[in-house]
Amino acid sequence: MPLTGEQIIGHQLIRGQGRELLAINPATEEAIPAPVFNCASANLVNQACELADQAFDSLRSTSPERRAQLLEAIADGIVGLGATLLERAHSESGLPLARLEGERGRTVGQLRLFASVLRQGRWQQATFDSALPDRAPLPRPDLRMCKVALGPVVVFGASNFPLAFSVAGGDTASALAAGCPVIVKAHRAHLGTSELVGRVIQQAVQQLELPEGTFSLVVGDGNDVGQQLVSHPAVKAVGFTGSRSGGLALLRAAAARAEPIPVYAEMSSVNPVFLLPGALAARAETIAAGFADALALGAGQFCTNPGILLAVAGPELETFVARAGACLADKASQTMLTAGIHQAYLTGLQRIAAQPDTALVAAGQPPSGATQAQGHLYRTTFANVAANPQLLEEVFGPAAIVISCQSVDQMLAFARSLDGQLTATLQLTEQDLEVARSLVQTLEKKAGRLLVNGFPTGVEVCDAMVHGGPFPATSDSRSTSVGSTAIERFLRPVCYQNLPDALLPDALKQDNPLQIWRQLDGVATAPLG
Length: 529
Ligand code: NAP
Hints:
Blueprint: E1 7-9, E2 12-14, E3 20-25, E4 30-38, H1 42-61, H2 64-80, H3 82-93, H4 97-120, E5 127-129, E6 143-149, E7 153-156, H5 170-178, E8 182-186, H6 191-207, E9 215-219, H7 224-231, E10 237-241, H8 244-255, E11 263-266, E12 273-275, H9 277-296, E13 308-312, H10 315-329, E14 334-335, H11 339-353, E15 359-363, E16 372-373, E17 376-381, H12 382-387, E18 399-405, H13 408-417, E19 421-427, H14 433-443, E20 447-452, E21 491-497, E22 518-520, E23 523-525
The structure holds NADP nicotinamide-adenine-dinucleotide phosphate.
């Protein structure tokens, strides 16, 4: 599939009339000469939104089975791109091929997960409260509820997951599953990768004869296209992963509309690790090695990267710090996703280094390229963090701070003062359970996922996953962007009172034509047969 650099507007490929862009190889900082991409003009963005609006009624009325087939066709198409996709993503992102192969597996797995969610049917949450005609003093009508699609969704591709959080990533898969047309704004950092995947989706939509506006992909750089998309009246929800400033700007744009809409923005998180005294005494060196591995993984460019670790001061903490520093010192520097993200990383390191009473423990192997990130491990004290809260701002990359506390009470106080997080980790043994219980009570108010004796990088795609959390980790703590319940962001409930069968959606028809699980007068009920 030769790349053209054109925008995907429904069934068409159209050259943008905006500024020219070339993809950049972050490892060499050289432009990739072909193709030339152009930013979308306001007209093209409008066309994509209008088409999505026109497609909505038809798409939301398709059977769940048909949308499942769409998701599977997209998954097959992505696999069918073979090495072409991996090599393009490698040259645009600097991410190693093995990592991208794993990410492709995750992307395809997500699409197939949502296909199975659609077939199983619980996502519609079909609920029946039977009529009670003889109830006194007033009879109860027949009441039925199910979830319906929200409307066209704009998805912002994330720089740090060119496949799994981008054009056919979790936001797109869950929105299409819900029956929402999707307009993706390609991330500037992987334009060709976006086009390859976008063309696969376009073909799958055509093969399945779904409405033209089911999917579009537009290119922009410099906020205009993103602002226009979020402000367009046809758009009913937004999925975003990126910087806190970008997420907040989109939230403001969405709130300023005549009709405000939800923005599901995943922004920043330092993912604290609480190393409790029993675990510190029993496994300081092992945990140190695991921590350094998690910190350096993927040049630290995971939203779940552990950026903060707390433990009580003492000789065992010194053992931990020495071992973690030694492990990090062995780690090679790695190419970051873009020159801008690398520059932001250097600025973040300078900000940490400028704080009083904050010492560098160790740095990784020196960089051998201009955009390579060298791992950095710092240490400071609880008292110093309390006085210098800038130390707790996310530094996107392989940098972390060990915070030494005088007591577990200080660790608890730290937990109470935390901002919202995607994850919080406890390293513990049996003897730590009492303090762990207090920590869990606090941390479940602060984070979307709590984990014990592991590290937060590595987000399983499954039914029980929550990849979310209170602000600023995300803009809406009631939802997840990973796992099957991510579909709920793009649905809303409708109650049908006394509607005859002929007017009800299939999920609520009396004879259960979709053969799905339903709740009948308070009882979860399997389909017959
Ligand atoms: P970004 O700057 O937030 O950009 C992400 C997307 O949002 C781009 O498509 C961008 O479009 C759009 N956008 C940003 N600000 C906008 C605005 N004011 N109005 C309209 N659209 C806007 O994120 P990034 O480029 O991926 O990386 C920058 C920094 O974000 C990183 O250094 C890191 O700190 C953070 N980041 C965090 C995570 C995480 O998971 N925590 C992941 C990725 C990045 P334009 O290109 O058109 O501006």
